[in-house]
Amino acid sequence: MPGIDDISPVPLSPEQRQPTRQEELLRIAYRLMADKGMHRMTLQDVADAAGMSKANVVYHYKTKENLVLATMEWVLQRVAARVVQATASAEGRNARIRAMIDAIFVDPQRNRAFYIVYAELITHSSRNGRFAELNGWFREIVTGQYATIIDGTSGRSKKSVAESAMVVRALIDGLFLQWLEEPDWEARHKQYKDLCARSIIAFLGE
Question: Is 0.85 topped by the overall pTM?
């Protein structure tokens, strides 16, 4: 899946740029989940792609559920960090909104891979407490960042800011789901990105 290898938005030290064996396994697992789905991916698939024995994968993660959860946590941390970093230096609410959307709508392939896998995480969250806890953590961080952008210039009450942040998240996730349904999803990525930024700005008011 193009672009997954450079998912991390945070500048790294020379030592950190050298991926650990465990990080390589997480990258491989993420690719396989995007290509095959969580259910169809096996520990043997990961081992084969990594050029190691299944026993080595089991040594690091014990179970497929542990590997999937570790992979999703690794990906979600990077997504959240990318949004925080992108908006930190922008001045003014609308500039921060556009910077946020730039950080979220990175490119068609990476966004498609992420939302296909993330949709499965949400499905698992309704049946598995460990997945629900991870998804709740990510939702709290991302919605909190949306609230920070809204609160910075609005003067709204805390309740109003929190509710507005929920609507912003709904706009982003809803437009992404519609985009995934498009037959020409790759060509229409920029259209949806621009629509998302305009919709959020219009909702919050100029």
Answer: no
